[in-house]
């Protein structure tokens, strides 16, 4: 008997019936459970007190798509349609320094792959960002995500959420409607509701849709610290989008 599973209807609604997704989120919001349930095929519907699991092959990527290939291998980067997700270069000093740089790189890698998939006429791979759960004791807000207080600023999930927003910003700075559309279609913020072992996904508004976000972001940018490690142009993640050439795919 299946004791816990992801509700298929809610998964289909939140992902546009995608067969492959990337999953990020808070540990207390059970994003690890979502990854394992999708990978193990525990996705289905309950009919007459019997859980009928889907026979679809669903691929669930995690933050490993931000890791150097030599460390994690080919499988963590290979899509169901046989593509390899390109990895944006990261300075060794950075990925030895902190796990957060690799997690943020994974988000940029996915956006770059999805931008290519638009031109290749392939389905986009959604990023399911699990940021809420029923009876959430640690809810996210613009205030916590954008805080400069060390115990909040240094949380990896907050850094990941800010990277998502920076990609939205970059699309606007580049005046790129296509990149902006890819961002908006890729990022899916999720509340996971446990209904006696049936886990239902519900879409939530992006954190930056909060009324206080713009004001708090501007305040944050005024106190931006100077980098201890300067990045050369060839490892700045923004340049992969600035110099993106569809003909080179």
What does this structure look like?
With 249 residues, the chain is of the alpha/beta class. The protein has one domain (5-242). Helices cover 40% and strands 18% of the residues. The chain is built from eleven helices and eight strands. An eight-stranded mixed beta sheet has the order 4-3-1-8-7-6-2-5. A hairpin with a 2-residue loop joins strand 7 (187-195) and strand 8 (198-204).
Give a concise summary.
The protein is of the alpha/beta class and 249 residues long. 40% of the residues lie in helices and 18% in strands. The protein is built from 11 helices and 8 strands.
Helical element count? 11
Give the overall form: globular
Low-confidence stretches: none
Radius of gyration: 18 Å
Give the class from helix and strand content and strand pairing: alpha/beta
Q: Major beta sheet, specifics?
A: 8 strands, mixed
The percent range for strand residues is: 15-25%
The helix/strand series, from N terminus to C terminus, equals EHEHEEEHHHEHHHHEEHH
How many runs of DSSP E, i.e. beta strands?
A: 8
CA-to-CA gap between the ends?
46 Å
Largest beta sheet: strand ordering: 4-3-1-8-7-6-2-5
The portion of residues assigned to helices is: 40-55%
- Average pLDDT confidence is 91
Indicate how many domains the architecture comprises: 1
């Amino acid at each position: 008997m299946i004791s816990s599973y992801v509700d298929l209807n809610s998964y289909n609604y939140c992902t546009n019936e995608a067969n492959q997704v990337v999953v990020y989120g808070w540990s207390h919001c059970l994003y690890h459970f979502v990854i394992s349930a999708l990978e193990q095929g525990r996705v289905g519907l309950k009919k007459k007190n019997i859980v009928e699991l889907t026979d679809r092959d669903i691929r669930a990527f995690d933050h490993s798509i931000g890791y150097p290939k030599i460390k994690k291998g080919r499988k963590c980067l290979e899509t169901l349609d046989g593509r390899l997700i390109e990895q944006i270069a990261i300075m060794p000093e950075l990925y030895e320094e902190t796990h957060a740089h690799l997690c943020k790189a994974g988000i940029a890698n996915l956006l770059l792959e999805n931008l290519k998939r638009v031109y290749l006429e392939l389905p986009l791979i959604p990023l399911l960002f699990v940021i809420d759960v029923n009876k959430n004791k640690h809810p996210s807000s613009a205030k916590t995500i954008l805080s400069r207080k060390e115990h909040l600023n240094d949380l990896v999930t907050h850094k990941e959420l800010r990277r998502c927003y920076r990609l939205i910003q970059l699309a606007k700075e580049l005046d790129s409607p296509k990149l902006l559309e890819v961002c908006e279609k890729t990022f899916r913020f999720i509340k996971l509701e446990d209904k006696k072992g049936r886990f239902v996904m519900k879409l939530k508004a992006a954190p930056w849709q909060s009324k206080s976000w713009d004001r708090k972001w501007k305040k944050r940018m005024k106190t931006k610290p100077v980098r201890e490690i300067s990045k050369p142009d060839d490892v700045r993640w923004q340049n992969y989008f600035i110099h993106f050439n569809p003909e080179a795919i």
